[in-house]
Every structure is written in structure tokens, then in C-alpha cells.
Amino acid sequence: MTINGWLQILVFCGVVVLLVKPLGGYMYRVFSGERTFLTPVLVPVERLLYGLAGTSEREDQHWTGYAAAMLAFNVAGFLLLYLLQRVQGDLPFNPAAMGAVPPELSFNTAVSFVTNTNWQNYGGESTMSYLVQMAGLTVQNFVSAATGIAIGMALIRGFARASGKSIGNFWVDLTRATFYVLLPLCIALTLAYVWLGVPQTIGAYVTAATVEGAQQTIAVGPVASQLAIKMLGTNGGGFFNANSAHPFENPDAISNFIQMVSIFALGAALTNVFGRMVGNQRQGWAILATMGILFVAGVAVTYWAEAAGNPLVHALGIDGGNMEGKEVRFGIVLSSLFAVVTTAASCGAVNAMHGSFTALGGLIPLINMELGEVIVGGVGAGFYGILMFVIIAIFVAGLMVGRTPEYLGKKIEAKEVKMAVLAILCLPLAMLGFTAIAVLIPSAVASVGTPGPHGFSEILYAYTSGAANNGSAFGGLTGNTPWYNITIGLAMLMGRFLVIIPALAIAGSLVAKKTVPASAGTFPTDSTLFVGLLAGVILIVGGLTFFPALAVGPIVEHLAMIVGQTF
Amino acid sequence: MSTHKSASLLDARILLPAIGDAFRKLDPRSLARNPVMFVVAVVTALTTVLFLKDLATGAGGLGFSFQIILWLWFTVLFANFAEAVAEGRGKAQADSLRKARTETQAKLLEGESRTAWKMVPGTALKVGQVVLVEAGDIIPSDGEVIEGVASVNEAAITGESAPVIRESGGDRSAVTGGTQVLSDWIRVRITAAAGSTFLDRMISLVEGAERQKTPNEIALNILLAGMTLIFVLAVATIPSFATYAGGYIPVIVLVALFVTLIPTTIGALLSAIGIAGMDRLVRFNVLAMSGRAVEAAGDVDTLLLDKTGTITLGNRQATEFRPVKGVTEQELADAAQLASLADETPEGRSIVVLAKERYGIRARDMGSLHAHFVPFTAQSRMSGVDFDGSSIRKGAVDSVLAHVKSIAASASGTPADSEAVRNIQAISDEIAKLGGTPLAVVRDARLLGVIYLKDIVKGGIKERFTELRRMGIRTVMITGDNPMTAAAIAAEAGVDDFLAQATPENKLSLIREEQAKGKLVAMCGDGTNDAPALAQADVGVAMNTGTVAAREAGNMVDLDSDPTKLIEIVEIGKQLLMTRGALTTFSIANDIAKYFAIIPAMFLAFYPQLGALNIMGLTTPQSAILSAIIFNALIIVALIPLSLRGVKYRAVGAAALLRRNMLVYGLGGIVVPFIGIKAIDMAITAIGLV
Known about the structure:
The complex is a heterodimer. Chain A is mainly α. Helices cover 63% and strands 2% of the residues of chain A. Chain A is built from 20 helices and 4 strands. A two-stranded antiparallel ribbon of chain A has the order 1-2. Chain A has a two-stranded antiparallel ribbon with strand order 3-4. In chain A, strand 3 (406-407) and strand 4 (410-411) form a beta hairpin. The two termini of chain A are 27 Å apart. The longest helix of chain B has 39 residues, at 62-100. Chains A and B meet through helix 14, helix 15, helix 19 and helix 20 of A and helix 8, helix 9, helix 12, helix 23 and helix 24 of B.
């Protein structure tokens, strides 16, 4: 580890924190229906859309109505994307003449993009037409992120409103998240990426003659626009198979920095929106601080492990950190930081191969996802995810101040606990459950790249990434088989909707409750003590469940490496 | 609630029967009430069956399995034992109450008759019937005195042997079945049918027979069940991981890991904590009609306290005589004393005392003065004496002024001395501002001055309110006084707010207002007109001396009829919740050490490298697993005293309280099992158990 390396990490954290208030303030105004600089332009568009959808911004929904609208929208999005892939050969904007995508892969990919996972069992430049990339994948990149933000807003309203019935209007939230938040930022980012050298064209692939005189086809396409939303919306699905390790998708350190910041920007800002909506910004900062502690701890471990490198390689007389699977233009610190950011935030874009990290370096991305992507997390998703843990933490420890548990004046009772437990339970169910089945199926085991504990990690990583809606891959595992396409698809669905529905149910239950005013006897939820408690509960309740699995995966791999054994 | 008392309650008379109960509670129907322990019992039973099968087929390594299974059963039994001990404490109390519920005979009055009665068994009485209870009789059932006054010994219920007065009308009309009339007679209208009397309810409450899970307990059980499910997933997937690695893990080891991971500590002690919480109230002579009420007590945000008796001593006392210009203090004192000689109210007596102490005016005999006492009436709002053709009156300032005016008017011509009137008004305003009550004194038509009656705030009450404020509880004083007086007393006593000129209606609307703001309100009351407010309050403590209506409306009854207790009731409620939270946190924090004990031991056979995770340096895989399961069982027993006694509550505010408890039960919960498991490992290795 170097001082220079830590300075880069520090600058990254600093910029993310600096963006929290301006972005939070802006989003707060957007979702409160207040006037912003875009209002004059967008209100007519909004009116038109609401009119077409037969709704209005004044029409608020009960949580069940909100959930039904969300589900209907996602099912429609899934069907559309599935069909687009199946018939892409007959549709325009297909200069590379891609044929229909096979059914299982189409299912997997459709689920993947609808759930904001962007797990890619396909290679973008060799499978998808421009039309599918733009009208299918990129559209879902926007709306799946907007869906996450909408759910986050609905849950925030559960806390902010008192004695009410409705938690907002899904269509309005979806529209505003897309048009006011994602679209303007993406336009700016796309221009920045283009300026940095990222291609943006609907022209055909370029054929070049190499120095040796051979012919090489160089894939290009509308990369910059997809890149902007892939990061900002924590989607992570690369235009190219190599994702952000590809020079056209991530040319240099500046583009790398912008990408990392845009992964965290909205998720971090949502904590501030929360604080503003409940009338105390410190509440938002406390949650962000918890995320920050877990994040920095993760960065420290991964950076340390990667910088320390592999003693077995050192024994061969090659000094230095672990550069396997990393781009030299990013080096150890930016690859480590990117890996932790992308897995903390449910993004899943990669600029290095996580499977090539040292065992401990690769352990952190796994843990980040197993905790349920609550360290900043996917846009909206990370926020409602961490609130599930807040509910559990408050319930466990809140009693210790001698009152029945309450958070922000809302009593946490049987219904909230039930839903929060359900949401948390579905992750180990999908992650451990599918892994346990897969490792017993010979054909599924045959897909791994390396046998032994590392192969186990590959399978565990795949289901973990799917259920956490992250989408990054460990590398090594051949995921494009019917078994993995279908089971990872199911894991993604469970990890998305089995969390969203309970979160909405909690919002619906909370919104009906009275708000108890805070007093000296109230559990302080904006204190350092609470930050520590929440981090502890996330690690113990969310993390310890995976200890046995991690022990027979990365942990044993690491311990074996120390004694000179490889698999 | 001294430590001595609770220590003595852990004596053999409770512990021995509890051991038997621990086995009786293995009944699946009883176990099913507790999801965590039920799961433990089920897996233990299944493991036992597997063990017996192995025993029959003569498989090897059975000594280790046997020990694990033994400790698994102990885990279940210890949980049952904890509950049995908690119940045992209540049972002892119930037994003494049952003695009071012996068969009684009742003198049932027939028809409209007031004297003719026939003897019927107490259990045959119906609601609405009227009985006669005479000196020496046991009151057959709960009822309301409709005629007569009697002194009653209520020791059977309250444990207090000094007799209390019960009389018809007013706020002391309720009588309780099982208590004894010591003198005189009363006619009682029965208000409770046999089997549902206060005593019956009390018995079933302290025994825990009717114990319903409270809302918070239900929610906690859901969380514990959810965590159990999460650990089912964590453990059930291990065999498949092991198969991938080419290894095999015995079922007994998986069961051991599972049972140590699930929150057995809190699961085992949860119901004991609840029962002990109710029991602490009973010991404190307060009966909560439901566990829900005890929980609500911990959540109280606003306390409504009656001024008289709670904040101030029952009675106002004369502290000063303030004459108008032209009248000496001596003259005013003399007149005031004369007017109060025959006044038996505490205020009247305090005037006589003050006149004697300050001005040396001796008591005089009313008879020799030919004086005639004029008692206080609600219409005149004055009292005084008439003698030798002149009259002295003392009373509320406005009524005395009205009195002077009317005399002046009838004596045609002599106008009221307007300067004295202004003088009187100035003095009384000043007194009222200080929180006192002014009583004007007039001889014939001549205003003499004002007696300053002062409310004496109880010693130490201000500190109590400061404490409550630190707990985040707002105190509101309820008084019939005018706003000015109320404000002064409120300031002196240090309450946060007051409701002056309180009526049952505005009391009720105050409660509703607070509740609309999301606050929980506690109050106590005794009169029938308190009943609506008691019913509306989240915690309504009815005084045992109160009316039947009040007792029915409240959700707690204070057998000592001491309104100050409301503060302690809140503390007991908080203590219950804190104990629950502390043990839950402790239980969950324990998991870290257990993982580190069992995971390396479990995988050691095929991943020897994982031995590095054995940071406690436990001797062998077997000893590690056994130590963890022994620790898991013994910690339940070790925490029984704490769960019965409760975590100590300190009025230091939530932040400080949380910091302390997090340190003790959170951090302690992480550290203690590391030490405990290591110690057990050393012990069992030393004696060669594994």
C-alpha cells in the first residue's frame, strides 16, 4: 500500500461526500414536487405521460396499489426485453447481423436487466444488436434504476408521513426519477465520456489492418450513452464483454474516477433525501456513516491484500502486489477500489477480474454482496436494503433504552419485523440455497474454471451476485448454460422482488402510524453509537450467516496459500 | 424490591418444584408456545432417535454424541426451568391469596328489605344483589357500598394490616371480596360474579395462568423465529458444501452448530422475563391487568399527576396573616383563629396552629363565648362563627367580597370600604401568584385581611421530576386551582406543564390531545368521574380505595392507593423492556465466538488449514464443539437471576443508557463466550470428557 494509493481513495470518498448535499437537495425537491430548473421543460412531458397512463400526480397509492403498479411495469418490461432478444435478427439497427438469442439466455438477460442486476451471460459485442442494446438494455438500465429510486422514496414516505394511507404514486416517482434525475445527469456524463474517447456511434464495426497485415474487427457502438446509465443507475452491464476493463469503455484514470463516483453518487445522496424528508439530515448522515465505515474497512482489506500480493509468486523472485487480471492503466489501488465500489453498490461493472484477486481481496466483494448490497447499494435498493437492517437493529437494541422500539417516531412492531426478516431471509435462501444445490450437480460443477475452493467461490459468487442484483462475475465460471441461466435468473428475481414487496409493505404499515415526538428517552438514531450498532448488526445478522460458506471458499483458499498450497 | 427480598425468592421452596416443572414442560403443547425452544426440542429428539439407532447397530464414537445430546436436552430443560422459577414466585403469592378466597357465607338482603336477610353461600351471589356485611363478616364478593360506613381490614389483598374506611357515596365505596369488616356494618351491592372477582383475577394474574404474549414479545418472537430460519439455511447448506470439498460432517455436529447459533439464550429466558416483570409490579403492590399495560408503562411519554397528594402534601397550610391597612396582624390572627376554632378541616386547624405559634393566641372554648359555628357550604364558600351579635367569616376572596357587599347594601348607606377592597384584592393576587390560596377574613362588614394558605410541595419531588425529564417523560400537574396558583406550584415543583381548573372533561381532552401527538399517557385516579380518563389513558392506574367504576376503567390497580407510585410503575415497565433488549443483544452477539469454536472444528478433517480460525486454541474438534454447546446451555442458567431481577434502570437519558447497555451486553456478549468456551474447554479436557 502507498500513500499515493490512499490519497486516491481519500479523494474518491471526499468527492462522493461533497456531492451528497447538492444531489440530495435536488432530489428532495424533485420528489416533493417542488420547482426545479427543469420544471418548465418537463412538466408538459409529465402531464402528457400521466394523461396517457390515466393517472395524475395528485393521485396517491396505497402500498398494495403501488406494488401492483411496480410489478405490472416490471413484468411488461421483462416481456418486451425477452421478445426483443428473440426477434432481434428481423429488426433494424443490427449491422453485425446478430441472430436470435437463445431462450434461456434471453430469459436470464431480461431478468438481469429488469432487476437492475446486469448479470451478463452473453458477450455484448458478439450477441446483441444495437437495437437491443439501446431500446432494450439501456431502457431497462434507466427504468430499473428509477424503480429502485421509487421504492426508496415510497419507504422514506412511510417514515416521513404520519397517520396516512398512501405512499406516493409509482408512475409519478418512476417518471420523475427518470426524467429529472437520471436523464439529465446521463446526458452530461455521456458527453464527458465521449470527450474522454469513448465511442458513441450506430455505425458498423470497424475493420482494421494490423501491423502484421492481419484483418481485425474492432467493435464499436453507442457505448458512451450506455456507459453513463450503467454506472449512474448501478446497473453494471457492459457494452463490451470486458466491461469497464475495455479501453473503449474506460479509457483512462479520469474516466475511471468519473465511473466510480457516479456509481456511488445517487445511492449516497438518497441518504440525504431521507434525512431531509424526515426533517433531520443527521439521520441520513448516520446511515451514510455506517455505509462509509463498512466501505472503508472493505477497501482497506482488499487494497492491503492486493498490494501484499501472493507469497507463492514472491518466492519465485517476482516482487510486488497482485497484478493478475488487472489493467496496468488502473493498477492495484484503482482496481481494488473499483472492485469494492462496484460490489458495495450493486453495480457490477468491473475494471479488473475479481476471480484473479487474492483470496482475501476477492472475499470482500463477496461479503459486500452477501450483506445485501447495503453499503451505498443499488440506487434506491441499497437504501431500502439498509433500512431493513435498521429495523432489525432498532428492534434488537432499541429495547435497551427501556422503550418499545421506534425509529424516527414510528413504532417498530410485529408487522415491520416480520417483513424485514422476510427481506433479509431471502438473500441467504437464494445465495446459499442455489449454491448448495449447484455444487452437488456434476454438470454445474463442470462449469467452474478452477476446481477446489476457488471453484466453489466461483459458484457462490455467481448466485451471490445474482441474488444481490449486483451482476459482476468472478470470472472462470461458464455461466451461459441452461442451468445457470435459469437458476441465476431465479436468484435475481428473488433478490429483487422478495425485498421490494416487504419493503413496500413496511412503508404501508409505517405510513399509517402516528409519529411519536422524540424526547430524551428516545433511542438516539443519529449518534455514533447507533452507527456502530447498525454496522454490528449488519455484520452479525447479515454476514455471519455466510461464515461457513466463506470458510470453505476464499478463507480456506487464503489459509492454504499461506502454507504454500494452491488449488 | 430489595436485593435481599429477591435473593430469598430464589430459595429452595421455589427451586425444587421448578425442577419438576422443567420436566413437565417438555410437553410439546407447552413447548410450542416458544418457537426457538420448540425447534431445539425437535432437533434434539430427532438426534436422540438417530443416536439410539446407532447404539442398536453398535456404531463407534457414541460417547461424544451422547454428551452432545445430553447437553441439548439440558438446554431445553434449563429454558423450562427458567420459566418454572419465574412462575414459582407468582405461585407462592397466589397460594396466600387463595387462602383469602375461602368459602364465605353471605347475608343476602331480600327484596327491598333493609334488615331481613337469609344466609346463602358467597358463590351463589349474583351481580346486582345486595348483601349486609356486619362487624366480623368477610365481604363475600366485590361490591359497592350503598349504605353505611365500616372499617375494613384489606390485609388479604394489600398486605397492609391497618384498617381502611369504606363508606357509601364518594370515592371510597368499593369493597373487595375476601376482605373483612372490623366494625360497624355496610350494605353492599355485588358487582362481580363468582369466579371473576378481583381476587380471582389477581390469583390468575400472579400465577401467570392467563398470561398472554404482549405485542412486543410477539414481535420479538417473530424476529427470533426469523433468525432461526436464517440459521437453518446457514447450517442446512453445509453438508453440500462439504460434499463438494470431498468431506463429510456428522449430523450431531451440524445440530450442535445449529443449536448454538440460534438465539437460544433469549428464547429460553423470554417468557421468564415477562413473568418476572409482572411479578415485580405485584411485589410492588400494583396489579397490572395485562402484560400490555406493563409494556405501555415503559413507553409513557406524559405523566398526568394529581397535584394534591402526589405533588403537594394532601393539605394546604396557613403560613402567614396579611392584614389590610389599618388592621394589625394580631387583630387579623385573632379573628382568623376564632373563625377556625370549630373548623375541623386541615386548613382550619393549620390556622389555629399558626395563630398560636406566631401570635401566642390560645385556644378558646366556643361554648363559653356563646359562639355558633357556621360551616362551609358550596353555596356560600365561606365558614366562620357568629357570637355576641357579630359575625366572622373566612373564605374565598370573591365570595367574601360579595358577602361584604350584600351586608353593606342591606345596612343601607354604609358603603363598602373601597380602599380595603382594593387592598384585599392586591394581597390576594400576590398570594395567588406565589402559588398560595388566599382566604379573606371579614368581621361584620369590615375586611380584616387575608390568610395565606400555602400548598406544601413534597420533599424530593422536584428531583424526581428532573429525573423523569432526563428519562424523556413530561409531567403534567392536574389541579382544580386557578391558573395563577397552578402556575406557581408547577414552577415550584418543577413539573413541565399543568392543567388548572381541571374537570373530568378537560382531563379527558388533554389525554386525547397528547395521544393525537403520538404520545402515551399515564395517569392515576380514584373517583367515578376519573373513569373515562382512566380508560382513555394508555396506562391508567386506579387506586384500590377508589370506586368500582375507576377500578374497572384502569388497566392497573394500586393496592396501596399511592399516586406517587406512577413513577415507579414507569420504571418497572422500562426495566422489563430493557431486560428483554439486553438479553436479545447478548444472545445474538454470542454467535461470533460460537462460529469460531465450531467452524474450524467442523471442517478440520478435510480442510486442516482452517485450524488457523481456532483462535481460542481449543484442544480438539470434539472438545471445541462440546464446549460451545455446554456454554450455550449454562449461559441460560447463569442468566436466570438477571432475567428475574431485571436490568437496573437508571434515569440518565436514552443515550447514556444505551451506551452503557451496549457496552455491557453488546460488547460483553461478544467477549464473554470466548472466555467461557475456552474455560469450559480447559475444564472438560482436564477431566477427560473428550
